[in-house]
Design a protein that fits this description.
This protein has helices at residues 8-25, 27-34, 38-42, 48-51, 59-76, 82-103, 114-127, 133-151, 168-188; strands spanning 36-37, 109-110. It is an all-alpha fold.
Length: 198
Amino acid sequence: MPFLRLTPSLWLTIALGVLMILLGAFQSVTETALEYSRSAISDGQLWRFITAHFIHYGPYHLAMNLGALMLCGWILFQEVSLRHYGLLVLTCLVGVSTGLYGFSPELDYYAGLSGALHGLLVAGVLITLRQTPWMNSLALAVVVFKIVQEQLPGYDTSHSLLPVPVAVDAHLYGALTGLAWGLGVLGRGFRARPPLSK
C-alpha cells in the first residue's frame, strides 16, 4: 500500500475531520444545538445521536480526536470501499449513542468522537487481522485492557485538559459496536478491496 493515496475512503476521513474543525470554530453555537442531550433526545431531537460525535469540549478534545481519526482512517481504512467504511462510521456513531441512551441513564450530556473511534479501531484491527496478525492482536489486547481498566470501580474519569469527565461508557459501547461489526465481516469473509489501478 502506498504511503498516502487519496482513496474515496480517505477522502471521507478528511471530510469528517474538516467538519469537526468547522463545528469546533463555532463551539458556542454548535455545542448546545448538537451535543448529546438526554432530555433533548427524549423530546425528539434525534439528530443528536449523530451530531454529538462531531463536536468537542474545547480545542484539546478536538485535536486529540481529530488526530486519532486521521490515523485510523489512513492506516486501517484507506483501502476499504467507501460504502463499507461509511456504513461502519455510521454504525459506530449510532451504536455509541444508543448505548448511552439505553444503558447509561446517569449521563445527561456527551460530545466527542472517542467512543466511535474505539469502534473503528476494533473493527479495523479485526478486518485487517489476516494482514498483520501479531500487530493487530496486540492492538486489540491493548484496547481490551484499556476498556476493562476504565470500567473498574474507582477509575478516575477526570482529565486535566478536559472541562468534563471522560465518558468511559462511550468507549465501551463503541468497542462493542466495532467488535460486532468486525466479527460479522470476518464471518462473511469480507476483505479490504484491492488497491485501485494506477
